[in-house]
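Key idea: predict the complex, not the pieces.
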Amino acid sequence: MQPAPGSWRDPSSRVFIDGDRVLRVLDTEALADFQALVATKFFQDAVADGRIVATKLIDDVPSELAGTWAGVLEHERIPVITFPFEWTFSMLRDSALLQLDLTEAALADGLITKDATPYNIQFVGSRPTFIDLGSFERIAPGQPWFGYRQFCEQFLNPLLLQSRGIPYQPWLRGELRGITPAQCRAALPFRTRNRPSVFVHVGLHAWAERRFANSTGDTTGELRAAGFNPAIVRGQVRRLRKIVQRLKWEPRGSTWSNYTERGHYTDADLDAKETFVRTAAARQRRRQVLDIGANDGRFSDAVLEHADSVVALDADPLVVDHLYRSLRERHDERIVPVCMDIASMSVPAGWRGQERPGFTDRVKPDLVLALAVVHHLAVTDSVPLDEVAAMLRDFGSDVVVEFPTPDDQMVRRLARMKKAGVVDRYTLDVFEAAIESRFEVIERVTLPSATRILFHLQPRG
Amino acid sequence: MIAYLDASTGSMLVAAIAGGFAGLAVLFKFFGHKILGVFSPKHRAAARAAKEELVPADEEQ
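Result:
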């Protein structure tokens, strides 16, 4: 059994995936930390309300792990693993607040989080939950919060940049360690970076890192000798929370953020489309549905009664942010909003390309919805229809796909800006040939307005 | 106290400032002898002694 990629940085704990089970092994120190954690009320409360993943110490240890480690924990399995570069501002902000809340609550019981990374948080539907139990340790006298710098690089700085209109997702996708104080300082406008609360964490932080870069002293020991104590860490965490709570991202609107109105659909079309999607989903119980181009989540909702979980994917961060907030308001725990462009999927990243697996390694749907997507890929992104069909086939699952014909008003709008070559190859015949070579057509329906055709497809052999 | 994360000196000092007045007091103590040492040979000696106690001379660059 190999440790799960990305779980080996902290030497005192590892995660192993054993079939459907998620196991965490602990060394003697980490086990003592866990026992101290379990004895606290904050931990029991956080597990009860889902802020920390449900976890138990187990006796039936798989033979491959027995004997080497002091203790083995089993975590409840998270249905869909997503990464911060696939989240939106509100998702990262809620995760940051969860990290700070748990760190502060732990401090009151003599514990602390040893790191502070969004990779320790996962979304169960719209609920952020903390998954790295190995992060809690008993606090030593005079111990600072070692996670502070990581908190700045992976939570605070990305949020600060996004609040000023600079999307952090591409940055975090390219640099897993996050955005350094110096980089953040360089990117932020003068007024933002010199607000007193922000200046300390960004400008002063960047200066201090440079100034003390070659320091060889035992700073932790010196700080302890000077009287550093948990009350200072608590003050630090509370101030960080105030900053994070005040951060807002208020863009003026994006191309798709008012899509709910769906002006280009007639009611009859929408009703027929929803009936088709429901019927296709209902053919069997679905473990996981991937809704590509989910927008306001209407069709993610439509399949929910037949699915355990839905990955609601959209490329527009503002759209996904709206969806997340509405799901969070209704406490949804089965639809996971994900911000990613299907034409530029998350690829494996980090150590040996295994630390953070790619999107298709993590998301294994048994039904894919590709509604109002094909024309964007084929016309806007100039992807040949055969490639679009191949991408859908890659998931190896049932597919419900919508094909707007070249007469469709949206297709005509998108095609206005394109060269004839791209538009000429966008025909129903080409699309049908592309899907029929890879899928069996279970059902095919033309919507009442006659410019949109829906297919329910089953992959061939 | 061994952390698996590399907490830089600069980060830790900024963390103390971010901790409020109590943190600033700690920082003054941390740098106090160095600051007062500019004016007083006594504090200069104390700063040197404190440093040697924490960092053995052969580890210094």
